[in-house]
Amino acid sequence: MKLSIIVPVYKVEDYLEKCVMSILNQSFSDFELILVNDGSPDNCGNLCDIWAQKDARIKVIHKKNGGLSDARNAGIDIAQGEYIGFVDSDDYIKENMFEILVNNIEKYDADISMCGYANVYGDGVRKMNSDQSVEVMTQEQAIHKILIGRELSVHAYTKLYKRALFQKVRYPVGKISEDAYIIMDIMDQVKKAVFTPCSLYFYVHREDSINTSKFTSKDMTRIEAHKKNYIYIKKKHPSLQKLAYERYLGSIAFVAHKIVMSNEKYDNDKVRWVFKTLRKNLIKIYGAEYFSIKRKVLISILLINKHLYRIVIRTAQPLAT
Questions:
Q1: For 253, phi and psi rounded to 5 degrees?
Q2: Roughly how many angstroms between the first and final C-alpha of the chain, as a whole number?
Q3: What distances in angstroms separate CA 82 from CA 24, 112, 138, 199, one per listed residue?
Q4: Alpha-carbon distance 202 to 218, whole Å?
Q5: What is the CA radius of gyration of the chain?
Q6: What's the pTM value of the predicted model, to 2 decimals?
Q7: Fewer Cβ within 10 Å of end Cβ, the chain: N or C?
Q8: Residue-level pLDDT, tens digit, the chain, 321 residues
Q9: CA atoms of 269 and 265, how far apart (whole Å)
Q10: Strands 31-38 and 58-63
Q11: How far apart are CA 102 and CA 95, in angstroms?
């Protein structure tokens, strides 16, 4: 079998059919689809079983709820494909996504094959890219593109991995930003990467998603993940050290955004540290390659007047990472 596609499933009854059908209708058909029902309290588990009865390529795991990382790990543990891909159960993919990713990884003898994505909001799809050109990259070039985060990001869902990359790697259970936690563990094994900017994955923005939910103490693990990456890059790729630190600051800015938008009280030591660290690094943020001009302005407003920031953010893009 050529490919294992892993889909963690939890409370996505309204989205799951579109996701699954976009996978089953792929032009590339030599795959197994592993649906991991992560203790979903709705009808998702039954839907998974019904689809498995209709298509022999589908395997279903029913497990106690353990979160996204735990669900992905359960899929990785039984995956039989030469390659592994991930799709989030509230998203969907273009009909030729895996055909392109598999063709690229084999044509260029790469360890990882990556593509662009498009954001989907309530009013439709934004910023589609139809460019199917191919860029072959070294490990360091690929890490640079991931850190910049404009065409590519840390997220698992725009990547096709050789299964061997996960031989000793698993997602951290109980952490937010699990993709950021393991990306450098993966990239450390990559000798050659290939990328097409074509938007093959459709990321659906939901009002109740992790990135739009209220601040909790778990959000601090996002910062922890990017600090881990900075430490790795400082040691292994010193030419990217400045950019990695900027990416670390970006994770702090994102957490600050969630704190302010949640109206969190500012008498918590960890919360105070977030704003203190941003202020301390404001000059670096102004001169950073990673931050857009718009984002630099928003961070300035956030640090000057939190109430004003909440007003402005209603019409400005959030500090996404």
A1: -65, -40
A2: 35
A3: 18, 12, 22, 24
A4: 26
A5: 20
A6: 0.93
A7: N
A8: 899 999 999 999 999 999 999 999 999 999 999 999 999 999 999 999 999 999 999 999 999 999 999 999 999 999 999 999 999 999 999 999 999 999 999 999 999 999 999 999 988 888 899 999 999 999 999 999 999 999 999 999 999 999 999 999 999 999 989 999 999 999 999 999 999 999 999 999 987 554 456 788 889 999 999 999 999 999 999 999 999 999 999 999 999 999 999 876 666 888 999 999 999 999 999 999 999 999 999 999 999 999 999 999 977 554 544
A9: 11
A10: parallel
A11: 13
Amino acid identity, position 6:
I
Residue 209 token pair: 């998603």
Three-state DSSP string of the chain = CCEEEEEEECCCCCCHHHHHHHHHCCCCCCEEEEEEEECCCCCHHHHHHHHHHHCCCEEEEEECCCCHHHHHHHHHHHCCCCEEEECCCCCEECCCHHHHHHHHHHHCCCCEEEEEEEEEECCEEECCCCCCCCEEEEHHHHHHHHHHCCCCCCCHHHEEEEHHHHCCCCCCCCCCCHHHHHHHHHHCCCCEEEEEEEEEEEEECCCCCHHHCCCCHHHHHHHHHHHHHHHHHHHHCHHHHHHHHHHHHHHHHHHHHHHHHCCCCCCCHHHHHHHHHHHHCHHHHHCCCCCCHHHHHHHHHHHHCHHHHHHHCCCCCCCCC
In angstroms, rounded to a whole number, what is the distance separating the alpha carbons of residues 79 and 162? 12
Residues 6 or more apart from 142 whose CB is under 8 A from it?
Answer: 112, 114, 187, 190, 193, 195
Report residue 299 as tokens. 């961070």
Could you tell me the two tokens for 220? 């601090």
Q: Which tokens sit at 86?
A: 């991930």
